[in-house]
Amino acid sequence: MIHELLLALSGYPGTIFTWNKRTGLQVSQDLPFLHPSETSVLNRLCKLGSDYIRFTEFIEQHIGHVHQQEHHTNQSNQTGLHGIYLRAFCTGLDSMLQPYRQTLLDLEQEFLGDPHLTISHVNYKLDQFQLLFPSVMVVVETIKSQKIHGCQILETVYKHSCGGLPPVRMALEKILAVCHGVMYKQLAAWMLHGLLLDQSEEFFVKQGPSAGGAAANQDEEEEDLGLGGLSGKQLRELQDLRLIEEENMLAPSLQQFSLRTEMLPSYIPIRVAEKILFVGESVQMFENHNHSPSRAGSILKHQEDMFAAELHKLKQQPLFSLVDFENLIDRIRSTVAEHLWTLMVEESDLLEQLKIIKDFYLLGRGELYQVFIDLAQHMLKTPPTAVTEHDVNVAFQQAAHKVLLDDDNLLPLLHLTVDYQGKDSKEGSGPRDGATPPQDTSPREVPPTGWAALGLTYKVQWPLHILFTPAVLEK
Hints:
Layout: H1 2-9, E1 17-20, E2 24-27, H2 36-64, H3 66-74, H4 84-96, H5 98-113, H6 119-125, H7 129-145, H8 152-161, H9 166-193, E3 205-207, E4 224-227, E5 230-231, H10 232-238, H11 242-247, E6 257-259, H12 270-289, H13 304-316, H14 322-347, H15 350-361, H16 366-380, H17 388-402, E7 414-418, E8 454-458, H18 470-474
């Protein structure tokens, strides 16, 4: 019977120990030679066997048939549970069960050597798992019942690991370390190469604008990000490129990324996540637009290998250390920010761009506009027509030549827009970023004069589009 017991505890029930989906593993009721006290000890052991069988079923379901699983996820399978974090959790769970399997093997060796050992010996040997299995089963049941997905698995395991039972804490910390391996790989791809490897939407960075004001209520977002006094909220305003999607002023390849705050584990503060987002976006933007040979080289100054090695070292740590993690993120962010500073302020001459904005948007070149008003007055007094925009731009060019505007490269980047009644909204050469955009009350309302419909667009050169977003030019 001892061998029957060991087999049942290994997940292979038989006639003495029967398996029932609802009640689990139990001793057969109709065995005349069993004393009630023996039955109770055996049933106590059977609870371990039941948990073990359920663990192995869960692991088999989510790891055993990877290709089949992927095929199911495409058809949005019934369980709704899928993804690489779940597979990592199962891998960690499987390694946690290894000592239990080893103990069963040792017990079999002992019983082969000494057939007079009792059931109490089995009970004594397996007693260490009596606390561990039910606690880990709670985590598995939580993941199954609440359909926990992606980085939320990290949060669930972390919460359950903060307990007072050392064996449970250590086992869950080992599982958490395996799950962190996936997060570090996604971080390395995103921060060092600008790649968002996230097919099942499990990572806390996503493509597209942030959903509503979910993150806007976070107090921590007002924290200083170390970007020259920028707060998280200002950075988001700075990078708010929603207007690009609507009006497509810049290259359509410029994508917006944002945080998926519901996926962010509670032990990673939002300020750190903001830095991760900033680094990835910068690297991604640089990789996508790095066409000219003069800018050859990487935004990380060829330190990718060093940073990758350090991320790997963090991955090897048994416990997640926020201090080490944030220090590394800060170092990567500083390297990227320094490179962007050089690129924007020195190579792209940010101060010159600010002067252009002042001269043309804020009418700093008063003499240019004085001449322009004289030339265009007769065209813009009346309601605009299809040719008004062209005529106005010709007048603008003439005004520039009259006041000896010497920068020939500048004029092609500036374009006056006139919004008239019959104009198709898609036809416009750009968004209406003028000082006086037409009223939005009714798009088909006839502007009383051309002045009311006048706008100014400016083609911002890469990489200054990070600062001069359409939202900024609109203001």
